[in-house]
Amino acid sequence: MATQKSRARxxxxxxxxxxxxxxxxxxxxxxxxxxxxxxxxxxxHLETAARDQRHTNLxxxxxxxxxxxxxxxxxxxxxxxxxxxxxxxxxxxxxxxxFANALYTNLLFYxxxxxxxxxxxxxxxxxxxxNPVVRGYWYAxxxxxxxxxxxxxxxxxxxxxxxxxxxxxxxxxxxxWVVGEPPVD
Length: 185
Hints:
Blueprint: H1 2-74, H2 76-81, H3 91-112, H4 118-128, H5 132-140, H6 142-146, H7 153-170
Helix pairs in contact: 1-3, 3-4, 3-5, 4-7
């Protein structure tokens, strides 16, 4: 009986130590989990701030682009600087092409910041391409788009518009709004 009591007394400190180790491990895991959660929240905040900054930068760039185009549209002398079209353009055509560029760039900006899906971009371009001036602009800037990196958003969207324009010109129907398959996002 004395041996059994002695054994029981020997197990109590071992069990207490085991429980202490388990409690310590759980406390360490809880602290680590709390730290990881705080880091995850901080990372999400930084990603959101980076995305917001990118949108701000894009908006600023869009504004500068519009200001430059506006000056060129208002001044034939300045518009000559931007005359980099494939075919010679009259001063009136040049101004129209610059405005078509502003419309296209605006849609591109909306797409980049997430205000338009690829499908919506496709639909809006399908509408714009009903205008012969916009079509002329698109053909006149083909060489410029060819210089874009193939993996860029703008190059990808440009190829999509090229295909849409090809289909619109081949279509033998008056219902232009059904021509071309909208892309799947």
